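User: Could you check the structure of this?
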Amino acid sequence: MQTSTQDDRTESEKSGWVGWVQIGAIIAVIILAMVLTSVLSSGGDRELQAAPERAATPVQVVRPAVANHQAEIALTGSVATPADVTLSPQVGGRVVEVSDAVRAGAHFEADEVLFRIDPRDYQVAVSRAQAGLADARSALDQLEAEAEINRAEWRRQYPNREITSLAAREPQLAAARARVESAQADLSQARLNLERTAISFPFRGRVIDSRIEAGQLVSAGQSYGSVYDIARLEIVAPIAPADLARLAPAVGRRAELSVGGSAFNLQGEIVREGASLDSRTRFIDLFIEPASPDALRPGQFVDIRVAGPDLEEGVMAPASTLVGLNQVRIIRNDRIEEVEVEVLDRLGDQVFLRPFDFGQGVVTNPVPENALGRRAQILASDEPAQ
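Assistant: Sure, the predicted structure tokens are below.
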């Protein structure tokens, strides 16, 4: 019994000693891990601090020039007429005379007779109307004489009484005067129809097409061709609302015109703007009145340059400097930065910007996005843009 108790005590002491050894081993492992972590961390920082800076990004820069600038808009338009005028007689009859000016493409002067309709029927109508007028006047003269006799007779018989309208023949006189006026109107109409046998226009124009020949029987109101007024030719040029805003006000501005790729040797003036935007293009029409309409024909395409207002002082730079719509990259303290700018005008390969601080210059060559903030190696610096 005593032996069994001693064995139990020995076993208990052995278990306690093993537990303390295990706890000590765990603590040693934790201390070792902490030491290793500290060593590795301190070693990594030293390596990071010792790592060399990335190589400088090579760039080309330009130093923009400060200048004044006048906006200029380039447009393309076409020559048009407000409306073609039909070659249509106002009276009917047989054509007895045709001018060479009534051929397609021919020019004619204001009031020049283009063709003439046989006037004899209309001359007869004038004679008939003259006779009718003479008859109406004669009847009126007779009634006036009779009325005067009646008034004299009334004054003798009734000196203190006012003559009645019937006795004075006033209703008959009013009807006779109306017949005279009607006869005068008939004569005026007959003379007007006679004048209309000679077809002409009150403007200097050009014939688009004509189907008039001598001996042809024409009817009043029928179209036998068309003409246009040369002085009314105009150029219609669509323009984007943003460009129109750059010209504001547009009406009254001078325009330089070029036809068929020739030099800009024609002049014009913007006379009005369209009332609405085109439903497809969302552009607005500008209407330009040419100074020399004789040099133009309907349907021709015209290149147009319109000078806008003088812009305030700004800087001119190559269009290649823009990144996106309104950012450029500059060099400041030998490092690459991206800044926003305000674009005042675009001129093909140049842009006109509101003045800004561009440091050592504006970058003109493409650089990667991750180059922002890096050192820059300036390869070349161009002269200020003009």
